[in-house]
Amino acid sequence: DITGLPEFKEADIIHLNWINQGMLSLSDIRKIVQSGKPVVWTMHDLWTATGICHYARTCPYFRSGCHNCHLLPGGGSMNDLSKKIWDKKKRLYHSSNIHFVTCSRWLAGKAKKSGLLTGQKILSIPNPIDTRAFRREDRESARLYAGLPADKKLILFVSQRVTDKRKGMDYFINAMEKMVEQHPEMKEDTGIAILGGQAEELAGKLPLPSYPLGYVSDEKKIASVYNSVDMFVLPSLEDNLPNTIMEA
């Protein structure tokens, strides 16, 4: 449902997605805004609405004005990099024709609390899913394709980088340890599939047989992994997706 976005001809719109890691600078975006064309900026995390961080966690400063950033040496200062970038973004957004779109209701709620985006147009539009690729398939065939064992119950943990603390790795390990303590038979009939970068590091810390698959970009294999498992666990502390309100 895109109700709330004005009707534009496709050729008239400039669409920005995730623009970090040197793809576009704020100066580049200013030039785009100055073209006079309407801009739709799809947010995939909170960076657009903060000074410098992609997820604010418990920091409240993005609501009124970033400073004293805990990500900077010594905890930053009143006029640190986060404050300078905040001010630069504020000037960029002022009087610009930008329509901010988030991929989840959670992110939309966060964005609306940001002092940077006060009065801005913010709409939540979930990511579409290609049901030709991500559909139910035979579990036995899926496990064979994914390289996972056929004789175990499987629990799945997924993250682009599984050692990212924000993804809840420590909570997942703790939960698995408690489950095995209460149900020791799991050591014989249950395993853990780990999808994402640095999967081997997590595998070595778990109390059950683990199957690190590493980072996978092939859609067919990703779909096969999901079809292979009995349970998917998402212990993230803060996350844009899935499309739910998620924050611990």
What does this structure look like?
It is a single chain. 29% of the residues lie in helices and 17% in strands. It has helices spanning 26-33, 81-93, 105-113, 139-146, 169-182, 186-189, 199-203, 219-228, and strands spanning 14-16, 39-43, 98-102, 121-124, 153-161, 190-197, 210-214, 231-233. Helix 2 (81-93) links the parallel strand 2 and strand 3 (98-102). Helix 4 packs across helix 8 (219-228). The longest helix has 14 residues, at 169-182. It is globular.
Strand content: 15-25%
Number of strands: 8
Low-confidence stretches: 244-248
Order of helices and strands: EHEHEHEHEHHEHEHE
- Give the mean pLDDT: 91
Structural class assignment: alpha/beta
Can you count the helices?
8
From the spread of the alpha carbons, the general shape counts as globular
**N/C terminus separation:** 28 Å
**Sheet with most strands: strand arrangement:** 1-2-3-4
Helix content: 25-40%
- What is the CA-atom radius of gyration, in angstroms? 21 Å
Q: Tell me about the biggest sheet?
A: 4 strands, parallel
